[in-house]
Amino acid sequence: MRADATHRFEFDVVGRHATFICLARTRQEAEQIARHAGAPVRLREHVPLGVDDGDGEARQMLRDDVLFGAEWNDDVAEVVSMLDHVRFTGDAMSIVPVAFLPASEIAARGLRACDCGRHGRAAMRMGLLPVESDMSIVVTMVEDGGWQAHLVQRHEDPGQVDDLIEFGWNRCRGSACEGLSLDFLPGCSVWLVAQLVLATMRMVGDLRPGELSCAAVEHRRRGHR
Protein backbone atom coordinates (compact mmCIF):
# COMPACT_ATOMS: atom_id res chain seq x y z
CA MET A 1 0.00 0.00 0.00
CA ARG A 2 1.29 3.48 -0.80
CA ALA A 3 -0.48 6.56 0.61
CA ASP A 4 2.90 7.80 1.82
CA ALA A 5 3.05 11.27 0.27
CA THR A 6 5.95 13.47 1.34
CA HIS A 7 5.27 16.69 -0.61
CA ARG A 8 2.39 19.00 -1.45
CA PHE A 9 2.38 20.01 -5.13
CA GLU A 10 0.54 23.00 -6.55
CA PHE A 11 0.11 23.45 -10.29
CA ASP A 12 -1.42 25.97 -12.67
CA VAL A 13 -3.89 24.26 -15.00
CA VAL A 14 -2.83 24.99 -18.58
CA GLY A 15 -5.32 27.12 -20.49
CA ARG A 16 -7.48 27.95 -17.48
CA HIS A 17 -7.42 30.21 -14.43
CA ALA A 18 -7.42 27.20 -12.14
CA THR A 19 -5.17 25.41 -9.68
CA PHE A 20 -4.51 21.71 -9.17
CA ILE A 21 -3.20 20.59 -5.77
CA CYS A 22 -2.21 17.10 -4.69
CA LEU A 23 -0.05 15.16 -2.26
CA ALA A 24 2.63 12.88 -3.71
CA ARG A 25 6.19 11.69 -3.20
CA THR A 26 7.76 13.12 -6.37
CA ARG A 27 6.96 15.65 -9.08
CA GLN A 28 6.63 12.79 -11.57
CA GLU A 29 3.98 11.14 -9.40
CA ALA A 30 2.15 14.44 -8.94
CA GLU A 31 2.07 15.12 -12.69
CA GLN A 32 0.77 11.60 -13.31
CA ILE A 33 -2.00 12.18 -10.78
CA ALA A 34 -2.86 15.48 -12.49
CA ARG A 35 -3.05 13.84 -15.92
CA HIS A 36 -5.41 11.17 -14.69
CA ALA A 37 -7.55 13.78 -12.97
CA GLY A 38 -7.94 15.43 -16.39
CA ALA A 39 -5.80 18.50 -15.72
CA PRO A 40 -2.82 19.45 -17.99
CA VAL A 41 -0.63 21.38 -15.57
CA ARG A 42 2.44 23.53 -15.05
CA LEU A 43 4.25 23.31 -11.69
CA ARG A 44 3.90 26.37 -9.46
CA GLU A 45 5.48 25.10 -6.26
CA HIS A 46 6.05 22.06 -4.09
CA VAL A 47 6.80 21.96 -0.38
CA PRO A 48 7.80 19.12 1.94
CA LEU A 49 5.12 17.87 4.30
CA GLY A 50 5.92 18.07 7.98
CA VAL A 51 5.02 15.41 10.54
CA ASP A 52 2.05 17.52 11.66
CA ASP A 53 0.37 18.00 8.28
CA GLY A 54 -0.66 16.20 5.13
CA ASP A 55 -0.65 12.43 5.01
CA GLY A 56 1.12 11.96 8.33
CA GLU A 57 -1.43 13.88 10.38
CA ALA A 58 -4.40 12.33 8.60
CA ARG A 59 -3.00 8.81 8.97
CA GLN A 60 -2.47 9.32 12.70
CA MET A 61 -5.96 10.82 13.05
CA LEU A 62 -7.48 7.68 11.54
CA ARG A 63 -5.36 5.39 13.70
CA ASP A 64 -6.40 7.32 16.81
CA ASP A 65 -10.10 7.33 15.91
CA VAL A 66 -11.94 5.42 18.64
CA LEU A 67 -14.43 4.13 16.05
CA PHE A 68 -11.73 2.12 14.28
CA GLY A 69 -9.71 -0.24 16.46
CA ALA A 70 -7.22 -2.88 15.34
CA GLU A 71 -10.05 -5.08 14.02
CA TRP A 72 -10.59 -2.48 11.27
CA ASN A 73 -6.97 -2.55 10.01
CA ASP A 74 -7.71 -4.71 6.95
CA ASP A 75 -10.70 -2.57 5.96
CA VAL A 76 -8.71 0.66 6.34
CA ALA A 77 -5.88 -0.82 4.26
CA GLU A 78 -8.33 -1.90 1.53
CA VAL A 79 -9.97 1.54 1.27
CA VAL A 80 -6.69 3.48 1.32
CA SER A 81 -5.11 1.16 -1.23
CA MET A 82 -8.05 1.59 -3.60
CA LEU A 83 -7.99 5.38 -3.13
CA ASP A 84 -4.33 5.31 -4.18
CA HIS A 85 -5.37 3.33 -7.25
CA VAL A 86 -7.91 6.05 -8.08
CA ARG A 87 -5.26 8.78 -7.72
CA PHE A 88 -2.91 7.09 -10.19
CA THR A 89 -5.35 5.74 -12.78
CA GLY A 90 -8.22 8.21 -12.98
CA ASP A 91 -10.74 5.46 -12.23
CA ALA A 92 -13.41 5.74 -9.58
CA MET A 93 -13.90 3.36 -6.67
CA SER A 94 -17.08 1.77 -5.43
CA ILE A 95 -17.48 0.70 -1.80
CA VAL A 96 -20.34 -1.50 -0.71
CA PRO A 97 -21.01 -3.47 2.48
CA VAL A 98 -20.78 -7.01 1.14
CA ALA A 99 -20.43 -9.83 3.60
CA PHE A 100 -21.06 -13.55 3.86
CA LEU A 101 -23.23 -14.20 6.91
CA PRO A 102 -25.35 -17.01 8.32
CA ALA A 103 -28.96 -16.87 7.18
CA SER A 104 -30.10 -16.34 10.78
CA GLU A 105 -27.94 -13.20 11.17
CA ILE A 106 -29.07 -11.83 7.82
CA ALA A 107 -32.67 -12.10 8.97
CA ALA A 108 -31.92 -10.73 12.45
CA ARG A 109 -30.26 -7.60 11.00
CA GLY A 110 -33.04 -6.98 8.50
CA LEU A 111 -30.73 -7.62 5.53
CA ARG A 112 -31.38 -9.58 2.34
CA ALA A 113 -29.41 -12.41 0.80
CA CYS A 114 -28.04 -11.66 -2.68
CA ASP A 115 -29.03 -14.08 -5.43
CA CYS A 116 -27.13 -12.52 -8.34
CA GLY A 117 -24.98 -15.66 -8.67
CA ARG A 118 -21.69 -13.76 -9.17
CA HIS A 119 -20.19 -14.51 -5.76
CA GLY A 120 -17.63 -17.16 -4.94
CA ARG A 121 -18.73 -20.51 -3.59
CA ALA A 122 -16.21 -21.04 -0.77
CA ALA A 123 -18.20 -19.14 1.87
CA MET A 124 -21.45 -20.72 0.70
CA ARG A 125 -20.01 -24.17 1.25
CA MET A 126 -19.55 -23.15 4.88
CA GLY A 127 -23.22 -22.31 5.18
CA LEU A 128 -22.83 -18.55 4.63
CA LEU A 129 -24.83 -16.43 2.20
CA PRO A 130 -23.82 -13.17 0.43
CA VAL A 131 -25.66 -10.10 1.67
CA GLU A 132 -27.39 -7.82 -0.82
CA SER A 133 -26.15 -4.26 -0.44
CA ASP A 134 -28.72 -1.54 0.19
CA MET A 135 -26.23 1.31 -0.30
CA SER A 136 -22.96 2.20 -1.97
CA ILE A 137 -20.40 5.00 -1.99
CA VAL A 138 -18.52 5.96 -5.16
CA VAL A 139 -15.38 8.09 -4.76
CA THR A 140 -13.62 10.01 -7.53
CA MET A 141 -10.74 12.47 -7.67
CA VAL A 142 -11.78 15.75 -9.28
CA GLU A 143 -9.90 18.10 -11.58
CA ASP A 144 -8.64 20.50 -8.89
CA GLY A 145 -7.03 17.66 -6.92
CA GLY A 146 -9.88 17.27 -4.45
CA TRP A 147 -12.16 14.29 -3.96
CA GLN A 148 -15.89 13.75 -4.27
CA ALA A 149 -17.90 10.95 -2.70
CA HIS A 150 -21.44 9.98 -3.75
CA LEU A 151 -23.72 8.00 -1.45
CA VAL A 152 -26.68 6.19 -2.98
CA GLN A 153 -29.22 4.24 -0.90
CA ARG A 154 -32.07 2.05 -2.07
CA HIS A 155 -34.21 3.12 0.88
CA GLU A 156 -33.40 6.41 2.60
CA ASP A 157 -34.15 7.06 6.25
CA PRO A 158 -35.12 10.79 6.49
CA GLY A 159 -33.70 11.08 10.00
CA GLN A 160 -30.47 9.47 8.89
CA VAL A 161 -30.23 11.81 5.91
CA ASP A 162 -30.54 14.78 8.28
CA ASP A 163 -27.69 13.34 10.36
CA LEU A 164 -25.54 12.93 7.25
CA ILE A 165 -26.20 16.51 6.16
CA GLU A 166 -25.04 17.67 9.59
CA PHE A 167 -21.99 15.43 9.04
CA GLY A 168 -21.14 17.40 5.86
CA TRP A 169 -23.02 15.53 3.12
CA ASN A 170 -25.24 17.47 0.67
CA ARG A 171 -27.92 16.60 -1.85
CA CYS A 172 -26.30 15.86 -5.23
CA ARG A 173 -26.81 18.69 -7.70
CA GLY A 174 -26.76 16.46 -10.80
CA SER A 175 -30.15 15.33 -12.09
CA ALA A 176 -28.80 11.83 -12.73
CA CYS A 177 -28.00 11.27 -9.04
CA GLU A 178 -30.63 11.19 -6.33
CA GLY A 179 -28.21 10.56 -3.49
CA LEU A 180 -25.87 12.62 -1.35
CA SER A 181 -22.40 13.98 -2.12
CA LEU A 182 -19.43 14.95 0.01
CA ASP A 183 -16.65 17.21 -1.32
CA PHE A 184 -13.06 17.20 -0.08
CA LEU A 185 -10.60 20.08 -0.43
CA PRO A 186 -7.84 19.93 -3.08
CA GLY A 187 -4.79 18.03 -1.87
CA CYS A 188 -6.79 16.18 0.79
CA SER A 189 -5.07 13.06 2.12
CA VAL A 190 -6.43 9.64 1.19
CA TRP A 191 -6.38 8.84 4.90
CA LEU A 192 -8.92 11.56 5.68
CA VAL A 193 -11.12 10.45 2.77
CA ALA A 194 -10.95 6.88 4.07
CA GLN A 195 -11.89 7.98 7.60
CA LEU A 196 -15.01 9.86 6.52
CA VAL A 197 -16.10 7.18 4.05
CA LEU A 198 -15.74 4.43 6.65
CA ALA A 199 -17.55 6.50 9.30
CA THR A 200 -20.43 7.02 6.87
CA MET A 201 -20.55 3.32 6.02
CA ARG A 202 -20.79 2.52 9.71
CA MET A 203 -23.55 5.07 10.22
CA VAL A 204 -25.64 4.15 7.20
CA GLY A 205 -24.86 0.51 6.46
CA ASP A 206 -24.29 -0.87 9.94
CA LEU A 207 -20.84 -1.85 8.63
CA ARG A 208 -18.79 -4.23 10.75
CA PRO A 209 -15.10 -5.19 10.41
CA GLY A 210 -14.42 -7.34 7.37
CA GLU A 211 -17.75 -6.59 5.66
CA LEU A 212 -16.82 -4.01 3.03
CA SER A 213 -15.89 -4.59 -0.59
CA CYS A 214 -13.92 -2.06 -2.68
CA ALA A 215 -13.67 -2.20 -6.45
CA ALA A 216 -12.39 0.05 -9.22
CA VAL A 217 -15.07 1.22 -11.63
CA GLU A 218 -14.76 3.04 -14.94
CA HIS A 219 -15.29 6.76 -14.65
CA ARG A 220 -15.50 9.06 -17.66
CA ARG A 221 -14.33 12.55 -16.88
CA ARG A 222 -15.50 15.66 -18.62
CA GLY A 223 -13.24 18.41 -19.91
CA HIS A 224 -9.58 17.54 -20.42
CA ARG A 225 -9.70 13.75 -20.74
Strand content: 25-35%
Please give the order of strands in the largest beta sheet. 10-11-9-8-4-12
Number of helices: 7
Radius of gyration: 19 Å
The chain-level mean pLDDT equals 83
Given the C-alpha coordinates, what overall shape results?
Answer: elongated
- How many strands, which pairing sense, and closed or not: the largest β-sheet? 6 strands, antiparallel
Written overview of the protein:
By secondary structure, the chain is an alpha+beta fold. The protein folds into 2 domains: 7-98 and 133-217, no CATH class; 99-131, no CATH class. It is built from 7 helices and 12 strands. The strands form 3 sheets. A 6-stranded antiparallel beta sheet has the order 10-11-9-8-4-12, with helices on one face. Strands 2-1-3 form a 3-stranded antiparallel beta sheet, covered by helices on one side. Helix 3 packs across helix 7.
